[in-house]
Structure to design on (595 residues):
């Protein structure tokens, strides 16, 4: 027994017609008054047989030699029934049609003619047995042959038409599969192309070109051997720059369009950025921002989707087409895949650029550290050593003339040598504080305060939450130490502060954020004026503080009032969630400042 995943339609036709013939025979016998005839037991047999065939058809199953067995049973029962009950124009004529139907449906014209020939032999035998004349035999033979030929011909034509339709469906299915294969290949090529480059410009251009490739086969016509390639797609990628959207790359945009900036404060752009969901529209004429784009003026269907990852929105992708309703669900899904891949590629490109910038900045920091060391050596120990050399020469000449004055001079030289030694040791300590590695952040900060008191007589007060200090990893501890060291040095040199306070505690209600504050009671300064020179690297102390704060993903806040001292506040995240929280707060603050 065989089983198929799809139903055998021809079996359903056969069992259905068999039921029709069986019911027609019963009704004819009832009208003729022969319903109780013993020969009618064959109707019960054919009924039971058709029930079993109906069950097999419902289960999409077939017997071995299923068609031959069905036609054979129908021929046998029809022959027996006709020989027992048959005569011309009797109810038995219904049963003659039974094998003609099944043979015609199963074996087409040839099967119908063969079944008709066999039934003509049965009819002839029955007519001779019942004493019928030759004319009745001839009429019965012609009618049976005509019915067999007609059923076979109709079945043959239906079969041929079905084959033609099936071939058409196969052609359409093959072309649709080719479309899907091409689309999947285009998406694969898109992913490979987008991830193979770390250039912003190439990522944007590739994303737009591959969007067209992913949609290039859209309609399949079974009557044609070619597929239609779509060339009417307009597209663009808008990226954020200083809280405005600019055209990063576009297709079918004019030169004027490429120079347009979009505030993204109203209309479609504002909506998709705020909601974070794509949008399909059929008109841009009323949009206050996109209606200026000449390249989209002829588009009757526009699809916009945000390029976002988590809380970060990089920009917007726009696709337009002249055909109304062009962006159906399938096309939108394909373009959404393009958008997601483009975001990943842009993130990779941005990370690469950040690494390149970080490498350059580290080189600058190292260069600045060397310059600072050279400057400090020149301003401090070098001058002191030169002074000592001059005084030693003076003391040597004074020994012969005034030994007492020479002794006093030597004492001053000794004192200067000790102070110079302390300065050098302090410089070495700040270059590499070994106590930070051996005893931790608290000890390093206290040691730095002690050396500031010892070397420069600068009072520094340290207040650190020791439990919090143990939670900070070594890399961040080093950065925090250098932030404190830079802030203290700036206060000592420029603020003329009598006291400097260093506080490190958990932020209230946010234990995963460390709050570092370095404050003094010095002369203060104008923060806005100093910030103006930041981009020009005018204030190296401020630059160092900002760059070192960025190393720990922190947020720097500087408050100062002339005559009332300075407060340097640094918020340092101790976990990824805390870093996201600080980044979002910083972005919000920047947006409010810009607005």
């Amino acid at each position: 027994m065989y089983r198929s995943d799809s139903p055998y339609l021809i079996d359903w036709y056969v069992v259905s017609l068999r039921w029709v013939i069986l019911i027609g025979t019963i009704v004819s016998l009832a009208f003729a008054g022969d319903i109780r005839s013993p020969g009618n037991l064959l109707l019960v047999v054919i009924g039971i047989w058709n029930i079993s065939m109906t069950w097999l058809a419902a289960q999409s199953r077939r017997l071995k030699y299923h068609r031959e067995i069905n036609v054979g049973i129908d021929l046998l029962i029809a022959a027996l029934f006709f020989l027992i009950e048959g005569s011309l124009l009797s109810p038995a004529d219904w049963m003659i049609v039974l094998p003609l139907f099944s043979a015609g449906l199963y074996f087409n014209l040839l099967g119908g003619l063969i079944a008709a020939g066999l039934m003509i032999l049965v009819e002839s035998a029955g007519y001779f047995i019942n004493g019928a004349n030759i004319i009745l035999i001839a009429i019965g033979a012609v009618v049976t042959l005509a019915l067999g030929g007609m059923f076979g011909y109709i079945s043959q034509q239906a079969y041929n038409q079905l084959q033609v339709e099936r071939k058409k469906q196969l052609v359409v299915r093959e072309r649709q599969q080719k479309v899907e294969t091409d689309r999947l290949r285009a998406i694969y090529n898109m992913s490979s192309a987008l991830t193979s480059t770390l250039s912003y410009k190439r990522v944007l251009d590739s994303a737009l070109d591959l969007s067209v490739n992913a949609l290039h086969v859209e309609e399949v016509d079974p009557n044609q051997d070619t597929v239609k390639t779509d060339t009417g797609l307009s597209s663009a990628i808008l990226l954020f720059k200083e809280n405005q959207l600019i055209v990063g790359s576009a297709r079918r945009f004019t030169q004027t369009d490429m120079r347009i900036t979009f505030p993204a404060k109203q209309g479609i752009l504002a909506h998709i950025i705020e909601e974070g969901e794509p949008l399909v529209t059929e008109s841009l004429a009323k949009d206050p921002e996109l209606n200026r784009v000449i390249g989209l003026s002829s588009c009757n269907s526009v699809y916009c989707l945000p390029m976002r990852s988590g809380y970060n929105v990089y920009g917007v992708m726009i696709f337009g087409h002249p055909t109304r309703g062009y962006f159906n669900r399938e096309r939108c899904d394909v373009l959404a895949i393009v958008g997601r891949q483009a975001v990943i590629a842009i993130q990779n490109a941005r990370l690469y650029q950040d690494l390149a910038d970080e490498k350059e900045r580290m080189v600058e920091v190292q260069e600045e550290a060397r310059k600072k060391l050279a400057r400090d050596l020149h301003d401090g120990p070098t001058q002191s050593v030169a002074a000592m050399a001059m005084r030693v020469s003076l003391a040597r000449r004074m020994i012969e003339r005034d030994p007492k004055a020479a002794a006093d001079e030597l004492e001053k030289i000794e004192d200067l040598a000790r102070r110079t030694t302390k300065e050098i040791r302090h410089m070495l300590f700040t270059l590499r504080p070994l106590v930070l590695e051996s005893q931790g952040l608290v000890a390093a900060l206290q040691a730095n305060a002690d050396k500031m008191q010892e070397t420069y007589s600068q009072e520094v007060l340290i207040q650190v939450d020791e439990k919090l200090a143990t939670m900070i990893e070594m890399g961040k501890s080093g950065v925090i130490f250098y932030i404190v060291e830079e802030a203290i040095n700036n206060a000592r040199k420029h603020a003329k502060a009598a006291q400097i306070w260093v506080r490190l505690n958990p932020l209230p209600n946010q234990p995963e954020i460390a709050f570092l504050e370095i404050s003094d009671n010095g002369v203060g300064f104008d923060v806005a004026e100093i910030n103006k020179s930041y981009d020009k690297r005018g204030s190296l102390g401020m630059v160092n503080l900002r760059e070192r704060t960025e190393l720990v993903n922190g947020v720097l806040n500087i408050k100062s009032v002339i005559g009332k001292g300075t407060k340097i506040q640094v918020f340092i995240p101790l976990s990824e969630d805390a870093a996201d929280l600080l980044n979002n707060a910083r972005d919000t603050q920047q947006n409010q400042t810009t607005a």
